[in-house]
Design goal:
Elements (H helix, E strand, L loop, with lengths): L17 E2 L16 H4 L9 E10 L2 E8 L5 E7 L5 H16 L8 E6 L5 E6 L6 H8 L4 H20 L2 E2 L8 E3 L5 E3 L6 E2 L5 H4 L4 E2 L5 H4 L10 H18 L13 H9 L12 H10 L10 H4 L11
Antiparallel strand pairs: 1-11, 2-3, 3-4, 4-6, 5-6, 7-10, 8-9
Length: 316
């Protein structure tokens, strides 16, 4: 679940279907390790926080806007209940593990962890005041190429950081990319991400995530050159996200078509790669094509995409 503000885009609500499989590869940290005193360099405690409003909720828990009583600083607080459930606990352990080891201006910053007496876990993160890219698309309409180049450079910088540190996000989509009012963009929601150094590529290829943004090899790697890469899969999801912001709708299905499992699987695995409408620049078309190659080996990496001509001028 992204730390979103406001309503989600209703037309895409059916696309946000997740499949979760139990994870056994990551160690489950004892509760004593998941506390603010063992993680945060600040002196923030759960009692210092005042709840202001509910920002969003989903299978992963609820996210609230909170304020520090003494400093008036604003944060987002993610509350995860019932973490005694193995799958929930495993996803939470993975998310905390990743948040602990990431340090990038393009990744949502985590301030502290708290474990409550009843077993709930709270994750305190920076507050992004403009919600998500999904929110902006709903409220403000489609993005210009110049604005997309500005967004894409930041998201790719975050992905490049993750991938060079052996982390596959596995759920890149507009709702999981958060925005500040100055168009500062950051990647969020690491609940189903994978630390690749602790597992095999094959284990990472299970269909976990949001169906609509899965790469073809996530459904059937044999039809895509027989290989799987969590990093390349993130690039496919990123490409769909950028294209959606440009055309204003999910780009792999025609307007009005039901985004059910069979339709999504056929469109992603067997349909023609989506093409941009007339009026898009050649640089933008080339950029999207580099992201949405069905063969994993032909898809560009985050590092390569950062050098693409489409990103040469990010003013907007």
């Amino acid at each position: 679940m992204a730390l979103i503000r406001g309503r989600q885009l209703k037309s895409l609500a059916p696309l946000s279907v997740h499949v979760h499989r139990p994870c056994f590869s990551l160690p489950i940290h004892p509760p004593a390790l998941m506390t603010a005193t063992n993680y945060s360099s600040t002196s923030i405690s759960a009692a210092d926080l005042e709840t202001l409003e509910l920002l969003g909720q989903g299978n992963g828990g609820k996210v609230y806007k909170v304020r520090h009583k003494q400093t008036s600083s604003t944060y987002a607080l993610k509350l995860v209940s019932n973490h005694s459930d193995h799958t929930v606990r495993c996803n939470l352990s993975r998310e905390i593990e990743i948040l602990r080891c990431t340090d990038s201006s393009h990744i949502v910053r985590c301030e502290a962890f708290f474990e409550q007496p009843l077993g709930d876990i709270k994750i305190l993160m920076e507050f992004m005041d403009s919600g998500s890219l999904e929110t902006l698309l709903k409220d403000n309409g489609t993005f210009s190429e110049a604005k997309l180049a500005h967004v894409a450079r930041q998201v790719l910088s975050g992905l490049n950081y993750l991938h060079t540190h052996n982390i596959a996000h596995r759920d890149i989509k507009p709702a999981n990319i958060l925005v500040n009012s100055n168009m500062e963009v950051k990647i969020a929601d690491f609940g189903i991400s994978k630390i690749m150094s602790l597992t095999s590529e094959g284990a990472c290829s299970s269909p976990v995530g949001t169906f609509a943004y899965m790469s073809p090899e996530r459904f059937n790697k044999e039809n895509c050159g027989g290989t799987y890469s969590g990093y390349a899969s993130d690039i496919w999801s990123f490409g769909l996200t950028i294209m959606e912001l440009y055309v204003g709708r999910y780009p792999l299905l025609p307007p009005g078509q039901s985004p059910d499992w069979p339709s999504l699987m056929l469109a992603i695995c067997f349909g023609e790669p989506p093409s941009l409408p007339e009026g898009a620049s050649q640089e933008f078309k080339s950029f999207i094509e580099a992201c949405l190659q069905k063969e994993v080996g032909k898809r560009w990496t985050a590092g390569q995409l950062l050098k693409h001509p489409f990103l040469s001028d990010v003013g907007f």
